[in-house]
Amino acid sequence: MPCKSMLIFTKIAELKGFLKQIKSAGHTVGFVPTMGALHNGHISLISISKKASNITVCSIFVNPTQFNDKADLKRYPRTPEKDAAFLEKAGCDVLFMPSVEEIYPTEKKETYDFGYLNTVLEGKYRPGHFNGVAQVVKRLFEIVEPDKAFFGSKDYQQVMIIKALVKQMHSTIEIVNCPILREEDGLAMSSRNMLLSEEERHIAALIPKIMEVAKQLALIKGVDEAKHFVNKEVERFEDMKLEYFEICDVDLHEISKIDPSVKAIALIAVFVGKIRLIDNLALN
Ligand code: AMP
Asked: In which domain, by residue range, is 220 found?
């Protein structure tokens, strides 16, 4: 039973009241948490949720606790009116746009233990990031209580964190992993792309191309050759700085050899100017 036009809530109590009615009428709820500055990647999650649920709720909340770099939080793009219009057009039923005070009425810190997952890749380079992600997603899950929640595999490690969180919460929410949407030139869609200058945007388009060559090199010549290539390629551009490029198994343990029978994934984090971009590519 999709709503006729999209409803917008800013208060938890009002959203909960509405969802209670929806659920008591037997409808299922799909949830897409976002930080706004929406693009077609986000909208693809809305479309997947709409197919899998009776009602789709999207949240827009730029979560301060997941930003380990305060300058990054400050510059994070915010386009609420445009986002609301985009969601309405996509057929989203409910938009939840709470304030920071609504989500965090107290400054109570929560700590989560994700073990190994929190020590590698994004966990290693963005200390505290996943703790903040877990804090906000747990809060949002407790508010929305969806049947299913939809996340993009562009944030591969984040999906693993959310799955671990749901287990720790003893929750029955089904976490659905959705494919990466890309621009025509292959760059993974990201809210951060709009912060790139024209020149930086051209350079950023090299990321998926470098990843594709690295994939072939990894498969034909080995992991070390692929890593060497990526380092050398990124070094060629003054405006690019590699944070990591790793080849891992699906559990994010680094691997040094590709075994055709074991799934492998390449993951990258790279600065283009001041903007940090991530991407990943399945190798086999
Ligand atoms: P964000 O607003 O960046 O926190 O992202 C909200 C959700 O959209 C997360 O689950 C992301 O993984 C997902 N997402 C972001 N970019 C893409 C993309 N290019 N394709 C698919 N999903 C994406």
From this structure: 191-277
